[in-house]
Amino acid sequence: RMEGQGSYTLPTGTEYRGALKDGMFHGEGELLFPNGGRYRAIWHRGVPTQGKYTFADGLEYKDKKWHYCDGYDRRFYTEICSGLKPAGISQLTNLDPPRKIPEGCYDCGDGFYNPETRVIVDYKFRFLRNADDDEHEWIIRTCRKAWDETTDHKAKP
């Protein structure tokens, strides 16, 4: 079994780097997620006892007093760090410019969702999972969709 310092890559592409004991995460270590996020923790026999998650853009998750993108402050983290854009120029996602969504698909946060096949792929178009009914409804209701029709400017008569 694995012992000491090392790294282990899970089938999902998530990588663990840190201390191992008896084949389990044990001591200081971090999980590096394919989306760029990371979770640093103190592990005890494979279970984190304390830890901190940092999103790919550097935003640290806070368990208490979380104010990011809540009902009171809807700014994205990049807007908090860099300021708001001028009036009339919208920032649709934390990424600026936002990812181009394939036609007929939705950007569901960790990849693209095709409602016809009900398949979610990561941003490099690798299979992640099939959406169940609840996730399908949530994505359709809340996520940003690629434009499926063109709109042209029509001059006033």
Automatic annotation (TrEMBL):
GO CC term (a single one): motile cilium
| Keyword vocabulary terms for this entry | Cell projection, Cilium, Flagellum, Repeat
Q: Which domain of life is it from?
A: Eukaryota
Q: What Pfam families does the entry give?
A: MORN
Subcellular localization, as worded in the UniProt entry: Cell projection, Cilium, Flagellum
Where does the UniProt entry say this protein principally localizes?
other
Spans through the membrane: none
This chain belongs to the protein called MORN repeat-containing protein 5
